[in-house]
Amino acid sequence: MSDPDDGASKDAAEPQPSASELIGAALGEAARRAGLDPAQSRSAGHVVWHAMGGVRGVLESILPSLAFLIAYTVTADPVTHQGDLWLSLAVSVGLAVVFTVIRIVMRQPAAAALGGLIAVVAAAALSLFTGRAQDNFVWGFITNGAYGTAFLVSALVGWSLIGLAAGFLMNEGTAWRRSPRKRRVFFWLAIAWAALFAARLAVQLPLYFAGNVAALGTLKLLMGLPLFAPLVAVTWLAVRALYPHRAK
User: Transmembrane stretches, by residue range (predicted)?
Assistant: First the structure.
């Protein structure tokens, strides 16, 4: 007769996934949903467009900030250069709400739109609380700082976030860490992403402290998707080059 405790013993003996494996799985799944699986036979242009969410994703990323910038600039007083904060924020938040409602009505994944809506509302709330238009950009500074720090630290400690995601997607877990070439490539890719977020902060923070809302809003747009898209392409092509025989 078998011991009824055998099953429990076997389950207890099974190795539990490490923190790096859990993080890699989460990052890899997120990359796969964004269309960034390097094993797929797609062009770099297709991958970048999919990662940005197509036409709707681009509009959801750009229009709320662009609407705020236009409304604030158009209503700005020629002497004080201050625009109608309430109107500018209402237009920005309104667009984010519209995009979210459209996705829900069409029964499409609304996670990205909801995330954008929450960020827009949080930024607007802070700006209304302080009465300063430039505070509408604070949430962006926080996210850029958090992402940049995460990429930089992961590279410096030898556990590149790019490597963790790629290892999960390519079914090798953390085995890439035993390859000097892969570790080197993943290190520099993580540094490149950290540099992108750092550059945004370096350029935009002085404008924030100077209260130059027009320049700040403009540079936020110019340093958004126009810099994000090429770096996505470089990252995807570099990872594919490391796994030439794994493409489907």
Answer: 57-74, 86-105, 112-130, 150-173, 185-209, 221-243
pLDDT in tens, 40-90: 667 777 778 877 878 888 888 899 999 999 999 999 888 777 889 999 999
DSSP the chain: ---TTHHHHHHHHSPPPPHHHHHHHHHHHHHHHTT--TTS---HHHHHHHHTTHHHHHHHHHHHHHHHHHHHHHT--TTT----HHHHHHHHHHHHHHHHHHHHHTT---HHHHHHHHHHHHHHHHHHHHT-GGGGGHHHHHHHHHHHHHHHHHHHTT--HHHHHHHHHTT-TTGGGG-HHHHHHHHHHHHHHHHHHHHHHHHHHHHHHHT-HHHHHHHHHHTSHHHHHHHHHHHHHHHHHH-TTS--
pLDDT tens digits, one per residue of 157-214:
999 999 999 888 888 888 999 999 999 999 999 999 999 999 999 999 999 999 999 9
**Res 154 pLDDT > 90:** yes
Residue 215 is encoded by which pair of tokens? Answer: 């320049």
Give the burial class of 227: count Cβ atoms within 10 A of its Cβ; 0-12 exposed, 13-18 middle, 19 or more buried. middle
Tell me how crowded residue 196 is: count the other CB atoms within 10 A of its CB: 18
Q: Which residues contact 129 (CB under 8 A, 6 or more apart)?
A: 135
Q: How far apart, in whole angstroms, are the C-alpha atoms of residue 112 and residue 56?
A: 11
Q: Is the dihedral of CA 87, 89, 90, 95 positive or negative?
A: positive
Examine the pLDDT at 247 and tell me if it is beyond 70: no
Instruction: Please report where in the chains the tokens 């999919």 appear, as a residue.
Output: 50
